Amino acid sequence: xTAGAVPLARVVRxxxxxxxxxxxxxxxxxxxxxxxxxxxxxxxxxxxxxxxxLQASAMLRAGLDLDGAxxxxxxxxxxxxxxxxxxxxxxxAGVGLTEADLQNTPDVPLGLAAAFDWQRAxxxxxxxxxxxxxxxxxxxxxxxxxxxxxxxYLEPAHPLQRAVxxxxxxxxxxRVEHATVDGCGAPxxxxxxxxxxxxxxxxxxxxxxxxxxxxxxxxxAMNAHPQLVGGSGREVTRVMAAVPGLVAKDGAxxxxxxxxxxxxxxxxxxxxxxxRPRPVVLAAALAAAGVDSxxxxxxxxxxxxxxxxxxxxxxxxxxxxxxx
Length: 324
Description:
This is Asparaginase. The chain is of the alpha+beta class. The protein is 38% helix and 21% strand.
């Protein structure tokens, strides 16, 4: 994955470049042609939580009956705010289960404010508050709907996980070559930067091209409930709220993917896994895909502070705002 990586963002402090974030990025046109390629779009990566919309599509195709807010939570890396937790509990209650049935790794809420409130109340890490609990609740609901065993739903050989693997291969067009365990405990399957972008283009275009299908249901749910996919102040929520029809999903260790309603798409991987350059690279990539709005430009503003005031900025190496 490191071979062929190029700088995607620079951290400028004063009049010097302080650090550089390298990676791989691709922007696709609606017909699948490559508009922008930086680094190696064929680099094999762990797409981490950017795969959640694909996992949700697999569950719907298998027979899960979720839509709207519940389906958005199945695609979420949520901040653990009260609305998120209530929604996860509702998914579980709808199939006769409780948070005790969740098997994802316990953690405190992902959002800083939510984590502070949770811990101030004297509460510790739980599976409910871990950011993947919506996905795990949906996985359990799928097992109930299909009559599959629940105790081993995280095993790679379980029919649920086999369905997820097949869906990832179908939507990305890339054969899974590697498998491991994600941070939440679910199986994680490899893809490429190009494959991830291709999948998101298909998801985002589905409401127009294949209404009513699993991909369209996922896209519509995420479009309608961006707050549930991320949380207050999160850039994934901000960009989806700003661009009608946009389907976007962040992933740990510097991954992002987004698809537009016309079928255009993008994906990137920051090689060092850093989060600071992600909003900047995302905004520049969306501009390259044809999205130009004040809201998206605002997402891409990441100041570098000195004594509490801006003394520089994180800047993209490509696009109109690139700085040499």
